[in-house]
Amino acid sequence: MAAIQMTKNQQMAVEASGCPLLVSAAAGSGKTAVLSERALRLLTKEHPVSADRLMIVTFTTAAAEEMRRRIADKLSDAVRSHPKDANLRRQQMLLARAQISTIHALCASLVRDHFAELGLPGEMRIGDTARLDILRKEAAEEVILSHYEAEDASFLSLVEYYCADRNDSILADLMLRLYTYIRSFAFPKAWLSDALSMYEADLRTSEWVKELCVGVCDSASYAVFLMKKALDEMAGSNLFEKYAPSFQDDLAYFESVHAAAEQNDLDAVAGLSSSHKKTKLAPARAPIDPDFADQMKTLRQEAYKAVDGQLALLFDTEESTFPLERHEKDRQILLPQIRTLFSLTEELYEKIDEKKRAENLLDFSDLEHFSVQLLARKTEKGIEPTPLALSLRETVDELMVDECQDISEVQDTIFRMLSKDEKNLFMVGDVKQSIYRFRQAMPELFITRRERYEPYPPKTDTGALILLEKNFRSRDVVCEMTNGIFSQIMKKHTAEIEYDESEYLVPGASYFEHPEAVCEVLIADGTEDDEGETVSSMEREADMIAKKIRALYESRYLVKDGDSTRPLRFGDIAVLMRSPRNTAEVFANAMRKAGIPCLSTANDAFFTAYEVAVVRAFLRAAENPLDDVSLVSVMLSPIGGFDADQVTAVRLLRKDAPLYTALFAAATEEENVRCKTLLERLDLIRQKSLSDGVHAAVLELYLRTELPKLVYAFGDGEKKEENLKQFLQIAKQFEEFSSGGLTGFLHYLDRAEESGVTFDGNKTLDAHIDSVRILSIHASKGLEFPICIVASCAKRFSDQDLKRDYQMNASLGFSMKTYVRSELRGYVSLPMAAVRSKNRRELVAEEMRLFYVALTRAKEKLIFSMCEKNAASKLSRAALMAVSACPHAYEVCRAKSYSDWIYSVLLRQPQNVFGDLQPSVLVPHTDKQLPVRVTIDSARDTNEEEAQTHVSASPDDQMCTLLKERIAFLYPDAVLPSLPVKVTATELSKREADTIRLSERPRFLMDAGLTPAERGSALHAFMQFADYTAAASDLETEIARLCEKQYLTQAQCDALNRRAIGRFFSSKLYERMCHAQFLKREYSFIYEVSPELVAKEAYEIKEPIMLQGIADCVFKEEDGIVIVDYKTDYVTEESELRERYAMQLAIYKEAIAAQFSLPVKECLLYSLHLGRAIDACK
């Protein structure tokens, strides 16, 4: 293995020691190499760390395995270079005992080693996600029900307050969300207690007021900038004299509000708000430009909109003082409801634990909390290590944590307890890539350490910071574009971190010169296609991207491959989306239409997938045949093979009865193989689930119907097959924790769907498949692609969580909307406004970090794409609001999409990048031009020169003659398309019968008993499924067994002709069968026959037709094979049976003789009605 050339800072990170260390590693800076090199150095230095005293925690299992492999390879290289070094060989042996794992594997090890101390049984296991979700939901319902039964007054008050006229399921949802949220903290119940105590503190000095004052400062500062811009724009114009007095008064007001808010002086802010009167502007008449006047009015309106919007969260603007009374009233309303909610949540916590313990289940969060229970205790002094933690510390010389920007508070507590006061703690990460706040990751933990630590080497032992800024992944243009965007929008106030020169990506990769390596912005303007038809913005953008990819591919765009170059492959391109669900398929279809192969990791709804719906419908129909909806679904599916007319024909048999009854009636006619087969399959799967379990039943369904192969006919076959495999796996997992059978499994699936559980199949994208990848930005983390297209940039950020009537935040606690039911109104209280404001800022910061991750996946070319309804209008408004060369914090935080940030930055470029759409408004610009090219694909563009010219032309006589000859052509084997590829022997003997033969209503569910045909079918079914030896000895016992196993219904058993069955077991034929050399029942075969057997007009066709048949019984005697077919027909003469079945038996004879390579000496029809065997081939 070649030695890695380290940069100065990388080498520093490898060798640093003596204090807590934090390595801030920019995208593509080689942090994995640094981690493995540091581990190797620890193992090989003068006073080495023993490998079994090394602990490395990674984010994923794959990363842990990769880290162990890298260290092992480096040790092997070292041993080859120094074969006599005893330490190296010792470290090789000890490496297997090194704790290199994920945080959950580490916690699992702790819990496993100390389960007795935790009071846990030794057989606890991680539960299936769907099962755990169902348990939680059941627990919430049980808690709520218990309080209803107890008629708990505080609970009923909460229900009345929060649910009112809504279903109380929303209370269960709130409890579950709160439960999930608090489990990200080391001491969940302590967080609830702290959150509750916030309502008892002084409101004026509360964190809520401080948060809202931050919002007022931002908005007032932005308003000041807008008013200054307006005054500068008007200076020297005729409008200045008209508007300047009002604008100057506004400016002074906004500056005063800003100053008061900075001091958290809400009384002063309230006084300013109530005393200020917005003046009416004087009319602007000619020669003043009305458009210019409107622009200035817009600036003023935006300034007031920003400030008034924030002030409205604090108080009614007409009040002259801070209305403490109103918020005291809110507190009195909210506090008892929140106290009750928290009490319910604690009860839910215990109930969920109880239910999990009953099934010996754990979830990953349990592992973390049990680890905290083992390692930490909360005291008045703070969080202190337990004796066990102090003991375990002595076994770890170095604790290394990868991706530390994405750890939660509970995980951070575990690391602090296992490390020696953090002095042997080495953490690596990049807070700009912290994108898992929805999993309760807390990037502020990284930020706090970063701000507290000194640059290495530090002057104290508090901690040291090392920056890895060099990027070894991307071209200089990609780095330059990334730096250009984020240096303007990623600020301490907007993203919790300042993107200054210390954070810049410094290009470290070597690339050849490429004239087209510029970054690009693609804008689909308008929502019309090439033919003027209105299309969705999603489809428009998808088509634009597909055309771009096709153009790059056909131009043989060169990309780096080792030390040389090669033409672009489809697999070099990734399309990244913020949320590909419900979107990726549109883009995939556009690419397929353009002939571009593509793969997607989008997690489409599992339960709504067609193939999954078919399997669920079949299982429902098998479990309950009277479920008409499921049965129709099965009949119309590939499993049933019916078309709508055939289903209608069956339905009409029994209009007023369940469909199953009608299906059974149709199936009694022997020629109706499709109906009979479906009923047999339903019965088989039902029996299989009873005898062997649900997993075996689903597997049998797949094997019998070949459904995994059939779904390929519907397109996207690999994905459908993967869903079917996942369904089979779910059935297997279900049986690990439940014995509920088929009914329980179907109930489990219903509950999982209601709970919003998502079942993910194997979504890994094979890197060796040459296809464009469509994936989420989250899924792209850790990956890299030569060309990245960041798509759907104009899609609005999701703010659904902000719209809830409750809000949670780590530092600001919990709040909910204030309802005054007596007045039928509700409003946002000050605490809720504050929590929502903080959550909004955190959401924007998270979106910004996601955007950074997307940009830094690109190696050679970065492309942004978006679709706008009216790009010119959006750009003009963005230009007008641009108050400085760098976007204002308020402007950045109020962005609704990535495109807002992109436009904000590009409008400030020294040169025009938008062409004709460049706004006329002057925008303060930066000094440096970014390497970007903007392409606008406008649906509004028309080009009369490209209009088609209509030419009148006479027909071509020669072409007309040729066309007539071709139209008149007759296919020589015209009958062939009408012939089936495969037929059954029964169909040959009953060629005149329809697929579905209509008959009278079956009476197996009626007092009158079965019809003669149905009694015959029952008798035939007995001959098919019975154990002959048992039946010959005790007929009634065998009949009872068949009924119990549901091979026959009770009505069928009652209708069996015992006398006819007895005659058979007393016959010479049965005696011969008992003494046969071998005997096969229900013997199936496939045999080639002449097409003439199917259609006389096909005598000239040479292609054979496959015949499929099932012989009731085949046995061998010394002188040949005997075929037996049981018949229940009501006849009086043997000749009737011979006439009906001679052809069928002749075919059986020919086919079975060929199958066994033995002569068939007899073909017997055993008439159960006549009680004797008839040789059909005489």
From TrEMBL:
<feature type="domain" description="UvrD-like helicase C-terminal">
    <location>
        <begin position="487"/>
        <end position="782"/>
    </location>
</feature>
<protein>
    <recommendedName>
        <fullName>DNA 3'-5' helicase</fullName>
        <ecNumber>5.6.2.4</ecNumber>
    </recommendedName>
</protein>
<dbReference type="InterPro" id="IPR011604">
    <property type="entry name" value="PDDEXK-like_dom_sf"/>
</dbReference>
<keyword id="KW-0238">DNA-binding</keyword>
<dbReference type="GO" id="GO:0000725">
    <property type="term" value="P:recombinational repair"/>
</dbReference>
<keyword id="KW-0413">Isomerase</keyword>
<dbReference type="GO" id="GO:0033202">
    <property type="term" value="C:DNA helicase complex"/>
</dbReference>
<dbReference type="Pfam" id="PF12705">
    <property type="entry name" value="PDDEXK_1"/>
</dbReference>
<dbReference type="InterPro" id="IPR014152">
    <property type="entry name" value="AddA"/>
</dbReference>
<keyword id="KW-0227">DNA damage</keyword>
<dbReference type="Pfam" id="PF13361">
    <property type="entry name" value="UvrD_C"/>
</dbReference>
<keyword id="KW-0540">Nuclease</keyword>
<dbReference type="GO" id="GO:0006302">
    <property type="term" value="P:double-strand break repair"/>
</dbReference>
<keyword id="KW-0547">Nucleotide-binding</keyword>
<dbReference type="InterPro" id="IPR014016">
    <property type="entry name" value="UvrD-like_ATP-bd"/>
</dbReference>
<dbReference type="GO" id="GO:0005829">
    <property type="term" value="C:cytosol"/>
</dbReference>
<dbReference type="GO" id="GO:0005524">
    <property type="term" value="F:ATP binding"/>
</dbReference>
<dbReference type="InterPro" id="IPR011335">
    <property type="entry name" value="Restrct_endonuc-II-like"/>
</dbReference>
<dbReference type="InterPro" id="IPR000212">
    <property type="entry name" value="DNA_helicase_UvrD/REP"/>
</dbReference>
<keyword id="KW-0067">ATP-binding</keyword>
<dbReference type="GO" id="GO:0004527">
    <property type="term" value="F:exonuclease activity"/>
</dbReference>
<dbReference type="Pfam" id="PF00580">
    <property type="entry name" value="UvrD-helicase"/>
</dbReference>
<dbReference type="GO" id="GO:0043138">
    <property type="term" value="F:3'-5' DNA helicase activity"/>
</dbReference>
<keyword id="KW-0234">DNA repair</keyword>
<feature type="domain" description="UvrD-like helicase ATP-binding">
    <location>
        <begin position="4"/>
        <end position="475"/>
    </location>
</feature>
<keyword id="KW-0378">Hydrolase</keyword>
<keyword id="KW-0347">Helicase</keyword>
<feature type="binding site">
    <location>
        <begin position="25"/>
        <end position="32"/>
    </location>
    <ligand>
        <name>ATP</name>
    </ligand>
</feature>
<dbReference type="GO" id="GO:0003677">
    <property type="term" value="F:DNA binding"/>
</dbReference>
<dbReference type="InterPro" id="IPR038726">
    <property type="entry name" value="PDDEXK_AddAB-type"/>
</dbReference>
<dbReference type="InterPro" id="IPR027417">
    <property type="entry name" value="P-loop_NTPase"/>
</dbReference>
<keyword id="KW-0269">Exonuclease</keyword>
<dbReference type="InterPro" id="IPR014017">
    <property type="entry name" value="DNA_helicase_UvrD-like_C"/>
</dbReference>
